[in-house]
From TrEMBL:
Segments forming domain HTH merR-type: 21-90
Highest taxon in the source lineage: Bacteria
Keywords: DNA-binding
Database matches in PROSITE patterns: HTH_MERR_2
Residues covered by region (Disordered): 1-20
Protein's name according to its UniProt entry: MerR family transcriptional regulator
Pfam families: MerR_1
InterPro entries tied to this protein: DNA-bd_dom_put_sf, MerR-type_HTH_dom, MerR_fam
């Protein structure tokens, strides 16, 4: 057994756990960081300890990968390690990989849209896993990636969420219909909010308006995300209650 495969007994964990299938080497490779970085984040408390499986081998899961992606995004936004520690310390300790991806998407939305051109190998690295031809075609159908010669144009802020949609048991047509509905309603909400903000700051200096807009953007995005999550949860609960009552 190699040192890189095994975590110290003091790292925590209580036996095997479904979904924790990555060794530290595999986690580092999937996240595009070094094993040393993973260990460093662990000692700083930025990553939870692995689950200790058979032969005391540390196993990591999707929540570790998602947390590494969130840390990378926070660094991309220019946050210091101390600021990242403070940010992560405010998050609930039991967030799922999906919840962490939503947080990363919100953080990514603070920055202007960044479309990059990448090759097939780099696309897989950015996605966090190797992609089959069929999966790349589905991402293209969802406008997450755009074929460009022998490479692809991709918005990094959308890619991770697009990859998660690959595992959703819905047809591409259903996903596209959902995307169309979300875009229509989000643009309508953006227009209404923009109108309200313009009216509220109509008498202010242009420089103040830009500063206020930059400050409000992440707050508005977080508010929209929270409101949508609660509304969707309520809609699903009512639908399931109706189905169970029939």
């Amino acid at each position: 057994m190699t040192t890189s495969d095994t975590e110290a007994a003091g790292a925590g964990g209580h036996g095997g756990h479904e979904g924790h299938t990555l060794t530290i080497d595999e986690l580092a490779a999937r996240a595009g960081v070094t094993v040393r970085t993973v260990r460093f984040y662990g000692t700083k408390g930025l990553l939870p300890p692995p689950v200790i499986g058979p032969r005391r081998v540390g196993r990591y899961g999707g929540e570790h990968l998602a947390r590494l992606a969130l840390i990378e995004e926070l660094q991309h936004q220019g946050m210091t390690l101390a600021a990242i520690e403070r940010y992560l310390s405010r998050l609930p300790s039991d967030l799922s990989a999906h919840d962490l991806e939503l947080h990363r998407a919100v953080v990514a939305s603070w920055a202007p849209e960044t479309v990059e051109r990448v090759g097939r190998e780099e696309l897989g690295r950015r996605a966090g896993r190797p992609l089959t031809d069929e999966e790349v075609d589905r991402l293209a159908a969802m406008d997450v990636v755009v074929p460009d010669g022998d490479g692809y144009r991709v918005d990094a802020g959308l890619l991770r969420l697009g990859v998660e949609l690959l595992d959703v048991p819905f047809s591409p047509e259903t996903v596209l219909a959902a995307r169309t509905a979300l875009l229509a309603h989000s643009r309508a909400a953006a227009r209404d909010l923009s109108r309200l903000l313009r009216d509220a700051v109509a008498e202010r200096d242009a420089r103040d308006v830009r500063s206020l807009s930059a400050h409000m953007h992440p707050l508005v995005v977080q508010a929209l995300l929270t409101t949508f999550q609660r509304s969707l949860r309520q809609e699903l609960r009512e639908w399931l209650d109706k189905e169970s009552g029939e």
